[in-house]
Amino acid sequence: MKGPEERTRTAKAVMFDFSGTLLRVEPVERWLGHVLADARISLTPTEFELCAVRLRDAGALPGGPAPREVPPELRALWSTRDRSAREHRAAYLGLSRQVPLPRPELHEALYERHMLPEAWQPYPDTERVLAALHGRGIPVAVVSNIGWDLRPVFRAHGLDAYVTAYALSFEHGVQKPDPRLFRAACEAMDSDPRDTLMVGDDAHADAGARELGCAVHLVRHLPVDERPDGLLPVLAGAGCREDVPSDA
């Protein structure tokens, strides 16, 4: 996961991925349930379960499980979905519309739901880690492949004060692993990439930071209650005096 140099280097700035690293989106069942309740639509337990399974298999929830298979007509769009808000919405609505729902407008409602702060939950150690870095004067950037502004999510969960900069793919027109997105974050923090640690859950996308000379630390994309302290090793990597485990 990390090379010898990465294990010994002390970071002077830290970049974090968003989904699956700092916060995780709600389960498909809760996502669907809220939208149906808001629309005052009742399904039988069997109908609800079938709908949820189909949406999960389609990969219709951004930040949720990946599609089992992307339909041929969506493959080109899927590969560039995080470059703009338009492409992101079109890609996920395209996946969602593979699934029959009681009303066609529910597809749009599902997409809108996933952008709400209440649809996201921080990992148990997220605030502790961000606060510790902030307290030591270590700048933090959030670097995310995303098609919408996640700043309100951080504000709602009381995390925004710890973040120095956001480098969001849809605002820059490039997506990870393109090193330009990581470079934008380093420049916003006024940090040398060689002194910067990238923390993420995707060995392909997030490891693109290595092209700039950044160290990379990968965590597991698990449900919130299954990963209580996966971020704590970052504190040791940034020279923070914390009693942390040696690995995630």
TrEMBL record:
Gene3D superfamilies in UniProt: HAD superfamily/HAD-like (3.40.50.1000)
Keyword line: Hydrolase
InterPro entries membership: HAD-like_sf, HAD-SF_hydro_IA, HAD_sf
Molecular function GO labels: hydrolase activity
Superkingdom of origin: Bacteria
Entry annotated with the keyword Hydrolase: yes
SUPFAM superfamilies in alphabetical order: HAD-like (SSF56784)
Protein name as catalogued: HAD-IA family hydrolase
Native species: Streptomyces iconiensis
